[in-house]
């Protein structure tokens, strides 16, 4: 396996990256950077907020599950293979537009994009949703190679993980939901803590990955709290839903800014970073829905 990876990284895989970069341009480079940003966790977190607050909580929970499963699987594969990114393996031949830490194989951008947007495509009534998703994922894979952070084998493995996650979430959603409902609350919290700890252990070298792990843990706890004690409705007119989302984003930004300011002396402590991130996830899924009901931006079920 080691020989195969080394052969791809110094041979066919590297050749593909070099060819794509050689046939890029300043405009295409900017497009590749934009796609890399759009495929990042922050964008999908914002999308989850909008879904959860103002569109469909059930769909949002599937979205979150796909995000958690794909994220943990990708983190596990990265640690298992520990393969370098192209710009690290061949710094004299591959130029980098977005330097990133951690390991390369598989592509998290591609895997998570397939999983979470696949959930939305499955629920969409638009007949061309899958075609649009396929084109977007292809562009995402192209972009990640053009910016110099992934090989084609990284993209393909990310694609497979994303598809497998999507199948599990969509085909087994009702079964998973029933099993989850039967598990004691303490066990649910422990499972979420385990998933978050795995991400921290695998990827804690990057503060941004600590953010991901913390948000996932806090959001998972918040969803359970909301389902038991808040139970808000996403119903309302279009203007009400838009207002609910805008106010929610402002509340999250205000609270996050306050937490970051208070925690600045502990900014280098991983546990402090994770705690702030967990509070953010809990705010999104439990505190703001409760607040929205209290200020008549949402109704209780």
Number of strands: 2
Structural class: mainly alpha
Q: Rg to the nearest angstrom?
A: 20 Å
> How much of the polypeptide forms β-strand, as a percent range?
under 5%
Outline the biggest β-sheet: 2 strands, antiparallel
H and E order: HHHHHHHHHHHHEHHE
Query: Could you report the average pLDDT, rounded to the nearest whole number?
Result: 84
- In angstroms, what separates the terminal alpha carbons? 54 Å
Shape: globular
Domain count: the total is 2
Oligomer: single chain
The helix content is: over 70%
Low-confidence stretches: none
Strand order of the largest sheet: 1-2
In DSSP terms (H or I, runs of 4 or more residues), the helix count works out at 14
Describe this protein's structure.
This protein has 14 helices and 2 strands, in the order H-H-H-H-H-H-H-H-H-H-H-H-E-H-H-E. It has 301 residues and is an all-alpha fold. It folds into 2 domains: 8-179, no CATH class; 183-301, no CATH class. A two-stranded antiparallel sheet has the order 1-2. Helix 5 packs across helix 11 (185-203) and helix 7 (108-123) runs antiparallel to helix 8.
Compose a concise summary of this entry:
By secondary structure, the protein is mainly alpha-helical.
Features:
301 residues, 2 strands, 2 domains, two-stranded antiparallel ribbon, 14 helices, 1% strand, mainly alpha, 77% helix
SSE topology sketch:
Blueprint (H helix, E strand, L loop, with lengths): L1 H9 L1 H11 L3 H13 L2 H14 L2 H25 L4 H4 L18 H16 L5 H18 L5 H20 L1 H10 L2 H19 L3 H24 L1 E2 L4 H25 L7 H25 L4 E2 L1
Antiparallel strand pairs: 1-2
Helix pairs in contact: 1-2, 3-8, 4-5, 4-13, 5-7, 5-9, 5-11, 7-8, 7-9, 8-9, 11-12, 12-14, 13-14
């Amino acid at each position: 396996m080691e020989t195969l990876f080394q052969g791809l990284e110094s041979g066919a895989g590297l050749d593909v990256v070099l060819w794509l970069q050689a046939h890029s341009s300043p405009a295409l480079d900017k497009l590749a950077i934009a796609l890399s940003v759009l495929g990042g966790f922050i964008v999908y977190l914002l999308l989850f907020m909008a879904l959860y607050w103002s569109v469909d909580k059930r769909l949002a929970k599937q979205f979150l599950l796909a995000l958690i499963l794909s994220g943990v699987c990708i983190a596990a594969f990265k640690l298992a293979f520990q393969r370098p990114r192209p710009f690290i393996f061949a710094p004299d031949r591959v130029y980098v537009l977005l330097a990133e830490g951690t390991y390369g194989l598989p592509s998290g951008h591609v895997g998570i994009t397939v999983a979470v947007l696949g959930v939305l495509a499955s629920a969409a009534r638009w007949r061309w949703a899958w075609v649009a998703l396929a084109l977007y994922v292809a562009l995402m894979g192209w972009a990640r190679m053009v910016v110099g952070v992934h090989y084609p084998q990284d993209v393909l493995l990310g694609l497979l993980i994303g598809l497998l996650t999507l199948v599990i979430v969509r085909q087994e959603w009702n079964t998973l939901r029933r099993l989850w409902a039967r598990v004691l609350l303490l066990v649910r919290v422990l499972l979420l803590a385990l998933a978050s700890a795995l991400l921290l252990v695998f990827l804690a070298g990057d503060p941004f990955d600590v953010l991901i792990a913390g948000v996932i843990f806090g959001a998972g706890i918040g969803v359970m709290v909301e389902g038991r004690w808040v139970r808000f409705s996403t119903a309302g007119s279009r203007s009400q839903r838009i207002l609910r989302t805008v106010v929610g984003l402002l509340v999250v930004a205000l609270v996050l800014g306050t937490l970051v300011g208070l925690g600045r002396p502990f900014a280098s402590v991983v546990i402090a970073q994770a705690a702030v991130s967990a509070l953010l996830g809990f705010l999104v899924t439990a505190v703001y829905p409760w607040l929205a009901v209290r200020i008549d931006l949402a109704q209780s079920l």
